[in-house]
Amino acid sequence: MLKNLTQFYHPATIEEACVLMAAKDGKNAVLAGGTHLANVADISIEGLVDLHGLGLTYIRRTDVGYSIGAMTPVQDIFKTSVFTGPAGDLVRTAAGKIGSTLLRNSITIGGNLVGVFPWSDLPPALLAVDATALCRRGIPKRTVDVKNLLETHPKNFLDPSEIVVEIQFPEYGKGTGTAFRKLAKTANDFSMMTIAVRLTLNAELISEARIALNGITKRPQRRMEAENLLLNNVPTIELFEAVARKSLENLEFCADFRASREYRQEVLGVLVRRCLEEALQKARS
Amino acid sequence: MKLNLTVNGKKCSLDIAPNAMLLDVLRSAGYKGVKKGCGEGNCGACAVLIDGRPRNSCIVFAAHCEGARILTVEGMGTPDSPHPLQKAFVDHGATQCGYCNPGSLISAKALLDKNSHPTEFDVKEALDGNLCRCTGYIKRIEAIMDVSSKQKSSKPALGGEE
Predict the structure, then answer these.
(1) What's this model's pTM, rounded to 2 decimal places?
(2) Measured in Å, how far apart are chain B's first and last C-alpha atoms?
(3) A48 CB within 8 Å of a chain B CB
């Protein structure tokens, strides 16, 4: 419960929301879907800035891919007919794996990204499709890589008055395949392990590769050393096994009541290999 | 602070605390059909329609609902004139202890409002957040499919006032 919450703001514009976030010495917080804030005991928050009325609920086709308003419920992403390719498939699959229908109607893509929760399913998918985030600081705006946003952590990356208003990602054509796996105790439970993979083939050589994960470490991340092993190589089972082993290296595995460090380590390699095989099959089809 | 919203077709102005959850505000206002289960968004007993979307009211800040249209189970039907879904739940024995019924009915209504002829898979997916401690999962699916089969139009034809 937010015991010290005394103010609830309904800004009419993004500029107004940014001004509110800049005020009160960091004691105002952004309210997106609210599913996390409703369950935490944070005595530092004195005001909530509700982004609900800012027109940030949309999914649009662009020249190169898609743009999604930060306040779009993940249920809309799961059910959208706008997506037509492998990147869209990956993001849609990830959105559909989040919680239940009731939760997906509250959880937003912006909140799921900026919250940086270890159990979030969308960030690995967004990393795998090279997504970017459009940030507004009043009228000034900038587009940043989701990878940089997550590596630095949005709390440190964004200015206190800066708000993520849109997520963008490109669509990929023939020769690209994607795969997604979530391992959880039940379909609605928090993820113990989330993996997203994208492979692009060029004349049977792997020309682009992304392996992103969450639930295993404290923060979503890409496995770039493992990705590099794939580049300019012919995909084989032996290569995928080597990449799966590489993806385990230099990782600080989390442990909790859902799964031990050892269990996560054991299963991660298997799931990475399976994702690579599935993505390859789709890239060839 | 004041919260202005429409509950079951009736405009209300309620005094609320900024940190109050919609579930508690609705129950305090007399809408006891909205049930408190887990209080963490996991069980679905507190589900209501907020501007047509089924959501867990236990994790929705009440103040977030300024100007919203809310539908609780009380707005679906009455004992004398039950909603077709409520009647079907009774006819198919889907009520059991009853605690999950308000949330399950709200999720079912949201589904049929969008898709009057869902598949069994659609029904399971729409109610995946409504846990039934009595494990009465099959009967509620049968009840919803029964209501769906009696609908002629592909357009929503069910009542309930938001």
Answers:
(1) 0.95
(2) 23
(3) yes
